Amino acid sequence: MSPTHSHPATLESLGPVTAEESRLLEKLDLERLPRHIAVIMDGNGRWAQKRHFPRVAGHRAGTQSARTTIETCARLHVEALTLYAFSVENWRRPKTEVEFLMALLREYIRKEMPLLQKNNIRMRFLGRADELPEAVQRDTREATEALSRNTGMVLNVALNYGGRAEIVDALNNILRARARSNGHNHRVAQGESSSPAAFPNNSSSRAESAERGISLSSPDSENGHDPHPVFHPITEDELARHLYTGDLPDPDLLIRTSGEMRVSNFLLWQIAYAEIFVTETLWPDFNRARLFEALLDYQRRERRYGAIAPPSRAASR
């Protein structure tokens, strides 16, 4: 994915700031922000419980934190923001809570559309959409289409999402594509097409077919199967391309609110080298200052990706 902006954000783009936000912004390097931020929005229920409110009140309060985070990241020219809204495991919650969450999502999409358009945001939904209620599927499709011509930040909403499920879906899509390609080659070998282009014989075409996982061995004439199938392993790059986030950079920063020290089946493949910031702040209390704190913490990290950091000048003297 190409950068959404060719110039860094400016403080002016954020609008009015509080004294606390101003102190944090003085320390923040706006040219070294993460390209992709992922957020596990946790703590709505505990926020409500502390105030003796029903759990659904916490979910509604959390929508303001989502609004603030989305708009701030867009104005900071972050390329992508992924919010964990509803997991495949969340169906186990009480039916009334699940129904409220689905209704709240539809309401949020409708109300926030002007803000998303104003900030030039594109919107996508990650997860198994076909398992969602039909009305939710319709609203998410319409929102994605309405914002598709924008050129700014990509907002991913992980909905009916699971990291393991995503990897399984990616592998199944690869195998499905290979099966279709192998079926086509078998039909060509049986004489359905005599076009040289349909059955590549040159080495470059064979290399291309091998990369796609296609066997070009001659099928057995009796049972229609290749007696000596060629095995083509799935590569990391191939798998990554088939993930829901295939055209986006992996998250540089993963933020988790409410203090829980786990990743909860979220972007398991993509966060392999992400910096993780955990705050005790509950999601409805997560404001712009807390986001700036997470960004400052990220900028203090030394990202080595498994390598050894180069010796400092002082150490080399």
What is the structure about, briefly put?
This protein is of the alpha/beta class and 317 residues long. The chain is 42% helix and 11% strand.
What attributes does this structure have?
globular; 6-stranded parallel sheet; disordered C terminus; Undecaprenyl pyrophosphate synthetase; alpha/beta; 317 residues
State the low-pLDDT regions, or none.
Answer: 193-222, 313-317
What is the count of structural domains?
2
User: How much is the radius of gyration in Å?
Assistant: 24 Å
| Average pLDDT reading | 86
The helix-and-strand class reads alpha/beta
Q: What is the percentage of strand-forming residues?
A: 5-15%
**How do the strands line up in the largest sheet?**
3-4-2-1-5-6
CATH class of the largest domain: Alpha Beta
Return the string of H and E elements.
Answer: HEHHEHEHEHHHEEHH
CATH topology of the largest domain: Undecaprenyl pyrophosphate synthetase
| CATH homology superfamily of the largest domain | Decaprenyl diphosphate synthase-like
Question: Could you give the distance between the termini?
Answer: 42 Å
What would you call the shape? globular
Helix content: 40-55%
Would you report the number of β strands? 6
Question: What can be said about the biggest beta sheet?
Answer: 6 strands, parallel
> Count of helices?
10
Can you name the CATH architecture of the largest domain? 3-Layer(aba) Sandwich
